[in-house]
Structure formats: structure tokens, C-alpha cells
Amino acid sequence: LMLLTMVVAMQCEERRKGERKRLLQTDNKLAHDKLAYNLTDCPCGRALGAYGEALPDLKVLLSSLLADGDHVVVVGIPCPDVVLHASKAVGLKGRVMVVDASPDRLRKSLQLNGNWRNVHVLRTCVVMPQEQKFENVSGRAPPCFAGYVGHACGENHLPTPLDALLPSYEAETSTTPALLLLSLSPRELLGAHAGLRGMLQVVSFSLVFHCDYDAQAVVVEPMSAAVIQRVLTSYEERGGCVFFHVGRHSASPSGLEADEFYYLPPPVHVLAVPSQSRWCLQSDIFQLSQSSLKGAAAGCLLRIPSSTPASDLGIVLKRVFVRCVPEVARFGTNPRMFFRRISFQLPLPARSNLGSPVPFASRWTVGELLEKIRVNQFPPDCSSARLLLFRYVNAELSGHGSMFGHLSVALNAAIITRRTLVVDESAAWPFSDGCKSSECASGFMSTYFLPLSSCRAPSRQEAHNLPLLSEDSSAQRVVLVLDDSELPRYRTRLPALLQPEQAELAILEWYAALTAFLLRPSNRLERMMREEQESMKIPALFLGLHIRRGHKWVETSSQPLGEYLRFASMLADRTSVRDVLVCTEDEEVIEELENVKTDLRFHYTNSSRPGYRISIPHAISLGILNASSENRVSLVNLLLLARSAAFVGTFSSGYSKRVFELIAAQQQALPLFVSLDHVWSP
Question: In degrees rounded to 5, what are phi and psi of residue 628?
Fold first, then answer.
């Protein structure tokens, strides 16, 4: 029996070593130590593989805050590198308690790195207070490239209010923690802070949490901004102070994954410290000392003035961001631009049709208008035709919906000025993926759509000194559009053939025809659409839902998911259609929909893309995202949504407006629709 026991034990040990070798990297040299970590763990494995350490910026911050014997409570951070660093900083006399809804990976990583007796892992999740329901907030930190992200309540965990968590910890240990570290998405963070309100009556601990932001406009994410203001008020009233901490990666990464990290903007944290902290004496930007961690990134801190409103937090952040991040130009940051988000408060009847489709009343059908556009675009003699040459407008920021909107206005301008619109396919736009196959040309429009014109665009050399489109350029045979300075003058003007009918429906019908002409799918795109429709099992009749989150929060507030579903159910009752095609760039939307109790049947593209602190076009231009993949998902869904029986979206989004125009062209009527924020306009 003893011999058999020894053999079994040896076999188990061999299997354990094999599994460890398969999953773990143990020879990775960190800036301060060696660490075994799970290669499949996102984001820890990716960060460690790229930098040799995970979140070096945060670890420098922790080194400056913690001392031997301190107690730390960490909520929502699954990365072992940071937890182990905090464990070393507080020593065996201290304690690190990690609270997370899904801590299995963290526990495994801790076990693989030895017996960390001062680290305690609690499997639970911070409750979302009843007054802050899920459907009333939106947005989240990027799942991978933020470096870390919290986990929402799930798997039937019993939620624990944060204001009950820490008192129970203090009762158990007879110690008040020196630091509370929150690694949560903006939505989770807002709920967690609601539980902090009672605790912040007595501010005796430091607080650190991740701040989600946009690096191009340097705008603080709205949920993060709301929490910052609450923390600012709580700490400043009691003599404490609050800072922005902008991290700095010091490593020189190599390889594709490393390049992705290198090109991404640095993490930003918010640090709140009690009145006794020496840091409260600082009034200007200062840099953290690196002495405690050789080779680690330092990062910069700037105190947030107590009177700063949520709308001006971006101005404070920009001050430290452009001073401490030399690569701001790479991220598309404009130091001189101060951004203001748009808000809409418009009555529902002005942005919806919940009755029945209203047929267009003009004397032209959409088909007849399409034929008139075709005649304009395919002249008998291109050598003498007057041309309007279009170069992609605002290329660094414009997505598909926005660019197609510029293009439809340019086509309207061409027809009004008796010109033929041609597109300069050599002009830079990140979405131009340069297809070289036999079924498509090298330009974006000719790859995904049928030819716009029979006329050839002038070459770059021929178009070198072309005049811009203007009232004074009528005598020129070829004029140029390369920005949005002149196009607005043609946005609501109608060509002579529609002049007697200046009603609102005439404008919608005309732009429906313009957009339908521009976005006639090529054979290649048609095939993609068929494949996707079969994959999603979409029936002939369905409703359309476009839920825009992602980078759009920079411009305007995200709409609650509950509002989308309320109007989708209303339209489903009107049309007796229960299938819904959902288009979104935020995979969290799909996760939420899967837990919704409804008789609606949702269909969606199986595609997941990490969130970033920069726009999609800019991420493509940096090589972080792939243009072909983005085009496939976006364009296929755009043209499938055009077949919807009714539609719910947001007309602050150009994508939603193009879908609405295409549906109107298909139905030759004002369709059933709801916009959750703005009215339609060209």
C-alpha cells in the first residue's frame, strides 16, 4: 500500500508539473522579482508578457502609499502581480484582503507563487444599491487593455454592500485599512461608491480607483466623473485631498502584443488621501519617486481643485496628461481642444413614429429618384463632365455612419451644382483596407459598394491645385471637398426637381434615395450579408436595434438599456414581430440581453472587441484594430438593419441615421421608429 501510494503521488506530481508548464510562464523577469502567471489570463498574462510586469504604474503608487504592517482591502482586481506587490509592501504584520466575484484565477496564481499568508481572498461581489439599478447606468472599463477590470455579480453570489464589507472587516481584524483599492468598471464603481457614502463620514483611509477616460479629447467617462465628484466632496470636507494619477510605462516592449500595449494610452487612477497625508501640501504636478521599484514607471500626480464640476474634470486631467505623456500626439490628443458633451432633451413625438408607416407624398417614388441620381452619376461623356472630387472628411475620427453622412451631403451638393460626384480612393481613411482580390478594387467604396460613377477620379497629380467647392468655383470643371467647411451649406438644400415640395418628408425621401444609391452593396458584401444572416438565423421579418456605447460616450450620454427594450417591446406589439436584430460594439450589451426576461428573440453578430480609450478609426490607424474585420461587422449589420420592419436607435449617431434612411428607402415611407435622444437630420 505504501509503495502504491508513492507511485500515485509521483504520477500526480508529474501531471501537475505538466499542467503548470502548459499554462504558466515562470522565467519572466519582472522589474523587481520573478512571477509565475497564467498565460491565458486576461489581462495579467498579456501585460506580463508585454512589459515583464502588470500595471507598473499602479505598483509605484502603492509603494508610495503602503508601509509595513498596513492593512489593504482590494475590491475587484484579479491580477496577482499587484496583489503580491501589496503583500510584500505590508509585510507579514500586514494584511491584504481581495474581494472579487470570480477570484478563481487569482487564487490559482497565488498558490503557484508560494504561500502568501497575509493575502486573504473573499469570493463575493459589491452590491448595486436599489436606487442605482443596472438599466440606469452604462459604460465600462476596457476589459483587457485597461490592465484590470472588476466582475459583475453573477453565478448566484450573495451580494455584499460595501458599507457592510469594511465594518465587518474592521470588526474581524480590529484594524481600519490604510488603503481601499477599487478596480471596477464605471458602472460597478458608481454602485460601489453609493455603498461608500456612509463610510466617508469619517475619512481615515486612502482610496485608489481606476478612472476611465478618452485619450483623444481627454474627457473623463461620465460614471467615473460622478464618482470623482462624490469622493472629492467627501475628502475635501474633512481636510483630505484628491489627485489624478497618470501612469507611465517604462518598458520598451517588442512583438505584436507588446506593440499593442505600447500604443495604448496610459492608465489613469484617482487617489484620495486623508488630511494627514504629506501629499496634500502639493499644489502643482509632481512625479512619484521610483527608488522603491527599480526600472518601474513613476507616473505623475496633480491635485483636483475642490470646486471642479464634473464637466471640467477633463480640463484638469488634460493639464497633467499633456505634461507627463510625451506620446500624446500618437494617441490623437489635441492639447488645445476643450471638449463639451452634447445633451438632448427633446419630446418623444419629435423623434419617433409609433403609429403606422407614413408613405412619402411626393410625386417621385424612391425608385424614380434613384434613377435620376444614376443619370447624374453616369454622364454620357466623362471628359467634359463637371466633377466634384470627394476626399474623406475628418478621416481620423469619422466612422462609417459619419463618413456616409458626409458623402450623401456631397452627392446632394454635386447634383445641386450640376456636377458628378467621384471619390478619391487614394485619400487616407483608416477603414480603407485595400482589398486586392479579383472581385474588388483597391479603394474602400469600390470594395464594398457598386460603382458610384462611370467617371474616373483625377489623380493626385491632376488634383494638386484644384479649387475647393464654393459659390465662386462654378466656372471650374473639377472642384474638391476635403473638409466639412462648405458641405453644411448644402445639407438641407434640395435640388431643383424637388423644389416645389419643401416638406420635411421630401427631405427625408431625398436623403433616403441618396444613401440608398451610395450604399448599394457589392457582390462581396452581399455574400457576407447572406452568410451572416444564415449564421444569426434571422427570419424575414425582424425589428432593428442599434445600441451605441463604446467611444460615443465622449460626445453624448449613453442611453439606458431598459429604454431600448421598452420601445422595442412597444414596436413589437405594433408589428407583431418578436425577432430583434441587435447591433452594438459593446459585448456587455449582449451579456445583459441574455439575462433579460422578455418574449423578444435577439439576434446578434458573435464578435468581441476590447474597448479602448481612443476612437475606432484611430485604433485602426495605429494597427491595434483590423480594418477588414471592422468593415465586415459594421457594414454587414448596417445593411441588414436596413431591412428592419421598425427601428430603435439614437440619432446622435450617424450610424443610426443611415440605418433609418435606408429603412425609409426600402419602405418608401416614414417607418416606425424611435430615437432615444435626437431628431433626424441629414
Answer: -60, -40
